[in-house]
Write a structure and sequence with these properties.
The protein is an alpha+beta fold. 27% of the residues lie in helices and 38% in strands. The protein is built from 4 helices and 22 strands. The strands form 4 sheets. Strands 1, 2, 16, 17, 18, 19, 20, 21 and 22 form a 9-stranded mixed sheet that branches. Strands 4, 6, 9, 11, 13 and 14 form a 6-stranded antiparallel sheet that branches.
């Protein structure tokens, strides 16, 4: 009888322990799971800097003289051929008149020399004059012709100089401020040998500063470091308000020198500016894909939690338990986080139902992608 009571008590204790164990072990948590995979991802990089004009035309007077008028406003557009400055032309006009007078005198002397030559030729044939006299008349005639050509060149040069008293814009662009004012004596060798600058803004440029170590890592061994037309793709300009400039940029050229201060290679990209909504000197943020696409580990954005600069995921182990793991994330592309480190392909991560998870909890995937 006593032995039977002991057996009954042991069975009862086992039942109580079993029920306690069942109550202590919570049921598995239903979650949505996705498998990390590899994908070809463009290496997207961001560059900060300032837009520059396509090129600048420096306006320099070619002749000396006094400024008598200015016909533009600094900071506003000017057109090719538009009058910018006018200089006092009276002194140069006098030079032109003198050159024209010299030309007429040379032509008159040529008439006399030609007549003497034409009379001397038949006389020399009849031995009426010596060959030496004929040679003298011939040389005088040829010298007079040369004097006419020289005088004609002097007239043309004087006409050019007189035309230079009107200074016109050689390009379409935006005029800068002027250093010369009405009444200043300007021209080569004076204090005002440069009057203003016209900046072409139909297209604006931007320097993509790529560190040399990054450049070499991306491109590997290259025969020519200056041929980089295929290195940059999808060049976008982001404006100050966060919007994107509607026209995509294009690669132009690589600057010949590497920056000795920063050790960077400067790749020049350009953006068309047909409506002149962009200005030279404007702050710019350029985003582009650099180099060929790389195979990287990606997961949906919903799988990654971010708090205080830390990115993390819940990884589902083979025994259906979940484990918290920190990861390093890269860029977002097509609603996918690029995982730089901390996660391997084919590992499963939770994308929905994370609120109730704790380290080591058992889960039941509702669906798996």
């Amino acid at each position: 009888m006593h032995k039977q009571i002991v057996i009954i008590l042991l069975v009862a204790l086992q039942l109580v322990a079993c029920r306690a164990t069942q109550q202590a072990t919570p049921p598995p948590i239903a979650v949505d799971v996705v498998t990390a995979r590899r994908a070809n991802i463009e290496r997207e990089m961001q560059f900060i800097g300032y837009l520059g004009s396509n090129f600048d035309a420096v306006i320099q007077p070619r002749v000396n003289g006094f400024l008598i008028s200015k016909h533009f406003n600094g900071g506003l557009p000017v057109r090719k051929g538009q009058l910018l400055f006018r200089m006092d032309r009276r002194e140069l006009a006098t030079t032109l008149y003198a050159a024209e007078a010299e030309l007429q005198s040379a032509k008159a002397q040529t008439v006399e020399a030609r007549n003497n030559y034409e009379r001397a030729v038949p006389l020399a044939a009849m031995d009426a004059i010596s060959q030496a006299q004929l040679d003298q008349y011939t040389a005088q005639y040829r010298a007079s012709l040369a004097a006419v050509r020289s005088a004609e060149e002097a007239v043309r040069n004087a006409q050019l100089n007189l035309g230079y008293t009107e200074i016109r814009s050689p390009i379409d662009g935006i005029a800068g401020s002027t250093s010369g004012h009405i009444g200043d004596y300007v021209g080569p060798g004076t204090e005002f040998n440069v009057l203003t600058t016209i900046s072409n803004v139909d297209t604006l440029s931007f320097d993509v500063a790529l560190p040399m170590n990054t450049y070499l890592r991306i491109t590997g061994e290259r025969e020519n470091i200056y041929e980089n037309d295929s290195l940059l793709q999808a060049i976008r300009l982001m404006l100050d308000d966060g919007s994107r400039y509607p026209l995509e940029g294009f690669y132009s050229h690589t600057r010949k020198d590497i920056s000795t201060e920063t050790g960077t290679l400067l790749l020049v990209v350009k953006f068309a500016n047909p409506d002149q909504s962009l200005k030279a000197g404007q702050f710019a943020r350029v985003v582009c894909s650099v180099g060929p696409a790389e195979e990287r580990v990606v997961v949906p954005m919903a799988a990654v939690s971010q708090a205080q600069g830390i990115s993390s995921v819940w990884v589902v182990a083979a025994d259906s338990t979940v484990h918290f793991r920190r990861i390093a994330t890269g860029v977002v592309q097509d609603s996918l986080w690029v995982v730089e480190s901390g996660l391997e392909p084919e590992e499963r991560v939770v994308i929905a139902g994370r609120q109730k998870l704790r380290e080591g909890a058992r889960v039941v995937p509702r669906n798996q992608q």
